[in-house]
Design goal:
With about 450 residues, the protein is an alpha+beta fold. Strands 1, 2, 3, 7, 8, 9, 10, 11, 12, 13, 19, 22 and 23 form a 13-stranded antiparallel β-sheet that branches. Strands 4, 5, 6, 14, 15, 16, 17, 18, 20 and 21 form a ten-stranded antiparallel β-sheet that branches. The radius of gyration is 21 Å and the shape is globular.
Length: about 450
């Protein structure tokens, strides 16, 4: 068996050329810091050509656990890679519907033509990746590792591709038709009214209501992702090519992170549009920071996540670090809170992800009832929107996003979703506009 390969590569602030090089290999997964400057934007993790790749339709978390255990290298080899955030293991995406079993929801939908392609998707696409390129933007270092157990053909393919990084080429992507809403404005407003009835009758305190859009496209989905990442600069961005579909996530939201048994989550709740005019932008910030409604929504989700973490974390370890902190991104301002805890030795990170899935910031409170209401009111399946892109490596380190600001490419169609949290005093037109504001930049792609 070959020895562990660990070598330095030239550092580049933009991992675009690495993505283009690795995209010729099967099932590339790019976890991208989005050229952002936040502390969360330290690493890019890029891989492809998994040792094993599985599109799952059930039992996602147990099957992921089995994959990870079956492939685990020796501890001595892993310790040589412990300075990296990822040392090989699971990389992939999990659909929102993977959490429907928690709520015992009937996930069936109508047979409408615009819904059917989304119903045919798996609920997860996950691979075992025994090599990766890790770019550390803080230390301005790039390292390639290949584990000894990586199959020889994959090893040779990786080394061949890495020896000839391609030159920049013009983007090969275009919309054949513009994005259109898959449901009418009237349908959204009717669903909103029904949701407020549920809230006023005590079924829930808050529920996230989303709307879906689609467009036809031609060309490279990776090129589309790279166009969008230049604008969004979101710290939890990701691109995954699962073969039959591609996921383009420009997410600003971390879901669950576990490192050295320390658990961390950062829910987003509270959004305002950004403006080029500094005075208008500051007014938008002031409006968000002074909004009692947004702070109340954020606090509801903090309480929900504290409860989720508390079911598995050590007693007394769950703490709220910061509440309602302002985070400004290229297109929007957000309120983000931080919660931490400590995971006992007998609980795996995947078990915690399973228990907390899907994220409370995109369901509502209480979670189970909110998910049931979402399932009733949203005609279009969420698929991987509000699911998660994640990794869980051989050293039991996990990180994950929530797939908001996310596009799904399938059968020459691009789908995207925008949602907002509805509470008792929400106004229908404002919530409808918030959905549009969240996805307007995603839909601004060139035509052909």
């Amino acid at each position: 068996m070959p020895e562990l390969l660990l070598q330095s590569l030239p550092y580049c602030r933009d991992s675009r050329s690495l993505m283009q090089a690795l995209a010729v290999l099967p099932h590339p997964v790019f976890l991208d810091s989005g050229l952002a400057s936040a502390a969360e934007s330290r690493y890019d993790i890029l891989s492809a050509a998994p040792t094993r790749f599985d599109c799952m339709t059930a039992d996602v978390f147990s099957r992921c656990s089995e994959l990870l255990q079956d492939a685990r290298p020796s501890q001595a080899e892993l310790q040589q890679l412990s300075h990296l955030p990822f040392c090989g293991g699971l990389l992939g995406c999990i659909a929102y519907d993977a959490g429907l079993g928690i709520a015992k929801i009937d996930g069936s939908r109508s047979g409408d033509a615009d819904v059917q392609p989304l119903l045919n998707l798996p609920v997860a696409a996950v691979g075992i990746y025994d090599w990766a390129v890790v770019v550390d933007h803080q230390q301005q270092k790039t390292e390639l590792f290949i584990l000894p157990g990586c199959p020889e053909k994959i090893r040779q393919d990786v080394l061949s591709v890495m020896s000839s990084v391609p030159e920049e080429t013009p983007a090969r992507f275009g919309l054949v038709s513009p994005f259109t809403a898959l449901d009418s404005r009237e349908h959204y407003l009717a669903a909103f009214r029904r949701l407020q009835d549920y809230i006023l009758n005590g079924h829930c305190y808050q529920t996230n209501l989303a709307m879906a859009f689609s467009a036809e496209f031609s060309g490279s989905t990776l090129d589309a992702f790279q166009l969008l990442r230049q604008r969004s600069r979101s710290p939890f961005s990701a691109y995954i090519d699962a073969g039959d579909f591609q996921l383009l996530s420009l997410s600003p939201e971390r879901f669950i992170s576990v490192r050295d048994r320390q658990v961390f989550t950062q829910p987003i709740k509270g959004t305002r549009k950004r403006y080029a005019d500094p005075e208008l932008d500051q007014a938008s910030i002031n409006d968000l920071l002074s909004s009692e409604k947004d702070r109340a929504e954020n606090l509801m989700i903090v309480d929900l996540l504290r409860n989720d973490l508390g079911t598995l974390c050590e007693t007394g370890s769950v703490k709220t670090g910061s509440l309602f902190a302002l985070h400004s991104f290229s297109q929007v301002h957000h309120l983000i809170s931080s919660i931490s805890g400590r995971l006992p030795q007998h609980i795996s990170p995947l078990q915690l992800l399973d228990r907390c899935f899907p994220g409370g910031s995109i369901t509502g409170a209480p979670k189970v009832r909110a998910m049931q209401i979402i399932n009733e009111l949203e005609r279009i399946p969420r698929a991987f929107y509000c699911g998660s892109v994640f990794y869980n490596d051989y050293l039991d380190r996990l990180d994950s996003n929530i797939c908001i600001r996310t596009l799904l490419a399938n059968q020459n169609h691009l789908y995207c979703w925008g949602g907002s949290g509805v509470v008792a005093d929400s106004e229908a037109e404002l919530e409808y506009q918030e959905c549009l504001d969240k996805v307007s930049a995603l839909m601004d792609l060139p035509g052909i």
